[in-house]
Amino acid sequence: MSSSGSTYGDIHRYEPARESTAAAIAIVLLTIIEVVFVFLFSYGLVSGWGLSDTGNMFLGGILAVIFMDLAFILALYRKEFLPDVMIVKKRRRKWEDLYIREEDVDGVPFSTGAWDQVKRAIYPYYKR
Hints:
With 128 residues, this protein is mainly alpha-helical. The chain has helices spanning 21-47, 53-81, 94-97, 114-122, and strands spanning 11-15, 84-87. It has a two-stranded antiparallel ribbon with strand order 1-2. The protein is flat and about 65 Å long. Keywords: Membrane, Transmembrane, Transmembrane helix. The chain crosses the membrane at residues 21-45, 57-77.
C-alpha cells in the first residue's frame, strides 16, 4: 500500500508484518534457551567459576551465547512482527543539519566577533 502524498509525515509505503506462527514458536524457544543460559551464567558467577582461568573463559563464552541468542530473538521479532513503513521526510541542506546560518557555511573571519567564535568552539551546534 502506498500513498501519493508528498508532504512531510505522509506514509509513502506500508507493508504489514507476516506474523508467522513458526517465528513465534522460534522466539519462544530461543527465549527459554536464553533464560537457561542466564541462569547458568548467574550460577557460575555466584559459585566462583570466574576465579580460575578455564572457568573465566567458560563464563565469557556463556555471556557471548546469551547476547547472540538475544540478537537472534530481536532479529526474528523485527523481521516477522514489525511492519515495513516508509514515511516522507523533509530534505535538509548540509548546513541545516549543523544548525548554523547559511551565510556561515564557508566559515567566519577570525577578526570579527571573538566572543562568538569562542562560543562556537565550545558549542558549535547552536541555533540562530
